[in-house]
Amino acid sequence: MTLAVTFLAFALLVSAPIRIHAFVALLLIYSVGFLIFNRHQLAMTRQDWLVVLLLSLYMLSHLPVFVMSGFSTRYLAPGLHMMGIIPIYLMLRVALAELSLVRFRAVLEYGGFVGSLGGAGIAVYEVYLLGQARVDGFLFHINFGYLSASLFFLMVALLPSTQRRALVGAGALLALLATLLSTSRGAVFAIPIVFTVLLVWQWRRIGAVYLVVGLLGLGGLALASYLTLPQVEERVDLTVSEVERILEGDFRHNSAGGRVRLWAAAIEAFKERPLVGLTYDERDALNLELAGTGIINEWVATISRGHAHSQYFETLATGGVIGVVALFFYLIFPALYFLRRSHQEPDNPYWFVGFVFSLGFIVFCLSEVALQHEMIATYYAFVMALLFVLACKDSERSA
After folding, report:
1. Domain ranges of the chain
2. Integer distance in angstroms from the first to the last C-alpha of the chain?
3. In terms of DSSP H, where are the helices of the chain?
4. Exposure check for the chain: N or C terminus, fewer CB within 10 A?
5. Hey, CA dihedral for 304, 308, 309, 312, is it positive or negative?
6. How sure is the predictor about 101, in pLDDT bands with cuts at 50, 70 and 90?
7. What pLDDT, in 10s, does the model give residues 260-282?
8. What is the pTM of this model?
9. Half-sphere exposure of 67 (CA within 13 A, CB side)
10. Which residues contact 128 (CB under 8 A, 6 or more apart)?
């Protein structure tokens, strides 16, 4: 069942109206039954307790604002979806000896390819046949872009160690096309950021010449995208124009400038209650007070909940110090751990795949509150837990 859900999670991620957490929920029910039936085989290690804690931190860090809001469940919903992965992780750990890396590898690659193909098909259909300026698919276009980019990073990370280079390479190109046509700037700009980090990280292994070639190739890809895709050209030109206006102090009718103001509002919310932050209603009231003061403008005051368009600033405003510490451990720490283990075990491909996938989300969260969406939180937690288990399995096999 885990293999089927994994395949569907990637294959239907952006290409179907069915939300993937519906399939994960079925796996959750199955895993609870599995754990009850095999409860005597479950021996928790410190590593297991750490994973359980990491998957619980989002929810735990939002308990204070949950209570202060009068027990509104919207503060806990993303965290509870992440916690739903705990029984699945424990089931995989109990069944570790029976896990087939060959089968899971095939599911990752075929599922990623089908998902990338579906995303690219929807993107081409909406942009070139319907004439839409941006791709929504069955999601809001920003989420479509982030999730398509996550498929791109997954396929690229799988590419060096795959035996299906044509399939995985084609999947990466299709996911890249879907990402570019989405016109989601946070997703598009994440691509050069992640690739630059990877090239700099690997420069000793690949050599200075290949590092320069890689950076030039990355620049060539960016230039080709700008010259051949009108949607990319328009968004890049708009971004340059908005940044110029921000530097001149003009934040009016400016998406990027609006984000800067929202971040400023989030900082003000943090100042009001640094330990745990403010509830959404308190942030709305604070923004109304701050409107017109020069700190924020009247447009920011109209944004529901003061939505900060950044996981980091949103957590700062509603979560405070406790939330930011928790965010470090459920978002940043996994990437650092995957990176460290990839250095220690360069022949284990799943540590590398986990690092690239998690690095993508670190960048996505700079410009969007990605993990506040229940489906994206479920997807992130499920894939991270799965890659961790597969990496452990590969390490155990090689020991």
Report:
1. 2-201+369-398, 211-250, 251-317
2. 28
3. 2-11, 21-37, 46-61, 63-68, 77-83, 85-94, 101-124, 141-158, 165-182, 185-201, 203-228, 230-247, 255-272, 280-290, 298-301, 311-317, 320-327, 333-344, 349-367, 374-398
4. C
5. negative
6. confident
7. 788 888 999 999 999 999 999 99
8. 0.90
9. 5
10. none
